[in-house]
Specification:
Blueprint lengths: L1 H18 L11 H9 L4 H28 L5 H15 L11 H11 L5 H25 L6 H28 L5 H29 L9 H31 L13 H16 L13 H22 L6 H29 L1
Amino acid sequence: MQRGVRAALAAALAWQVAIMLPSPLADYAYYAPLGAVIAVHPTVADSASAAWRTVLAILLGFGLAVAVHELTLWLPGALTIALIVALAIALEQWPVLREHASWVSFAAVLMLTVGAEDPARYAAAYAGLTLLGAAIGVLVTTLLFPPLQLTAAQRRIDVTRALLAQHLRDIAAGLREGEMPTPDQWADRGRGLDVALDGMRAAERIVERARRANPRARHWGGSALRIREQSRALDRVAVLVDDLTTLVVEFQPHRRGIDRIDGGTGWVLADALDGLAGVVCTPYAVLDETGTDRRESAIATAEAALQRLTSLLRTSDVGDDEGFFALGAVSVGMHRSLDTLRSGALDLRAA
């Protein structure tokens, strides 16, 4: 909705400015709103980038069309167009143009079909008015309180956090019930988390871009920093959790030699996974009815469960079993995950 309001306002302003210009520019006033719409993006940095890259692509297309047309007057029109389009597509591979590269071929063909009679005049009007509209679009985006996309990013983080915690709880439930999924089944379950992680990373990148040239960046800098810290901490934990849950699913260490030492290995491992899920779900210090910090309680519960698992490993005399080594790797992964979540909380408080 915000982008729609900005685009509408920018287009209207661009039109009003364009029609007041002297002829022949005023004759092509409709190109100014086009430039305004092109340049209106959720972030100031993206708006400025879209503006100059689009105008550059248009000028390249115009220049290419005029040059090829003049050099191939002796060729049939169809061959000239084919050559121009082929060269335009080649120019579109230039990395600088990014997602605005398609304007090269569009402008090249447009020059041949509309501006061939007076190329210089048409190029100046089209590119100039598009640039004018784009400048207005960037100005409107800058002045109308451009959002930092913090709410959308936080929502992505919350979704990822919930899925990651559910990921751990599902494995814990399987351990207690004795019904572990196969590796293929577990991979299918993990696709939702992978999608959420991709969305969270993309949202973090948008927040970083939104801070550039944004007048609101200073006021909301602390919130943006917390978004980045949360996202990166969850990303690191997700990688560790993926490794440790894969080990549990593939090797099922609770059913191997280690279980000869203690028949409750699966339950101990499940408690540790549930404890880690509780910390994942409690990113901030929150006081309950008794005044106890729920996050500190969650961390203490996870540490106690993980200590029981570690003690089980240390007191075991089964040192040559594949499941024993897998369980050791799982324990290390959970220790690292808990350390990452704990240090992330400290960083957030410091920010």
